[in-house]
Each structure stands twice: as structure tokens, then as C-alpha cells.
Design a protein that fits this description.
Elements: H1 8-17, E1 22-26, H2 32-41, H3 47-61, E2 67-71, H4 77-80, E3 83-88, E4 91-96, E5 109-112, H5 119-133, E6 135-136
Helix pairs in contact: 1-3
Length: about 140
């Protein structure tokens, strides 16, 4: 998002000031799972670098009420490194990263909440579970 969306930091800042809750759950850039994923992907823009880019941009936002960042718990890292979930109220954009592919080469799913216990809720509950076990990051 940081590299593809112009003024993404400004957009986030504006949304947060309007009362939007923004949470980032990231892998540990120095973690073993991150290193393993880098070996699988074998690309120049490594997983650790992409995480550090996110941390750098989040740092530009400064400490804001409504913005939280956590690292995946060590036990959950394998459940998080291969999944990207961007949730917006009743919509979610989900990328289940496939085997040896980089995220942008994996399918992108747009989920809309249609009712209880559907695919949207399953991904939302999974992300919430990972978030709850995440380790708060302090700048």
C-alpha cells in the first residue's frame, strides 16, 4: 500500500482524525518465519524490507489515538506471514499468499459481509484472533 497509494500516510492520518480505528499486524522483520518466507520467495524486495517499509511509514504518522501496531506472536507467525487481510467495516480485501509466490502474484479476494458465519466472518475472526495474541509494538 505504501508504495502504490499516493499519500497513503496522509489518507490514514485523515481517516484516524475522523475516528477510524487503524490496526496493523505485522510479522517480526527479524523473526525466523520471516527469514523462511524470504528463502521461499527469493526476491530482491524481501519480506523483512517490506515490513520495515511499513514500520517506517507508520513512524511518520507518529503516535496517534486510534492507530495500533503489533507484531504477530511467535506461535502465530506462520499463520500470518502467508495472509494479508485489509478489513473495512463490512468489506475485506484478502490475499492468501500461494506457496512460493509473492503476495502480489497471489489472488486478491474482495469479501462483503452478507450475514453471520460467512467467508467474511471467517477471515475477520481469524484476523481478530491473531491480533489478540499479537505483541504490541511501541515506537
Amino acid at each position: 500500500m505504501w508504495l502504490e497509494q499516493p499519500a497513503f500516510v496522509d489518507t490514514l492520518r485523515r481517516k484516524i482524525s475522523e475516528g477510524c480505528r487503524v490496526r496493523f499486524l505485522l510479522g517480526d522483520p527479524d523473526g525466523e518465519v520471516t527469514r523462511q518466507r524470504e528463502a521461499i520467495e527469493d526476491v530482491a524486495l524481501s519480506v523483512a524490507t517490506r515490513i520495515r517499509i511499513s514500520l517506517e511509514h507508520l513512524g511518520r504518522l507518529g503516535p496517534l489515538e486510534g492507530l495500533e501496531t503489533r507484531f504477530s506472536s511467535a506461535e502465530d507467525a506462520v499463520n500470518h506471514v502467508s495472509l494479508s487481510v485489509f478489513r473495512f467495516d463490512h468489506d475485506a480485501v484478502v490475499t492468501p499468499h500461494l506457496a512460493r509466490l509473492v503476495g502480489h502474484d497471489s489472488p486478491l479476494l474482495h469479501l462483503r459481509r452478507q450475514g453471520d458465519s460467512g467467508m467474511f466472518d471467517r477471515f475477520a475472526e481469524h484476523a481478530e484472533e491473531l491480533w489478540n495474541r499479537g505483541v504490541p509494538r511501541t515506537p
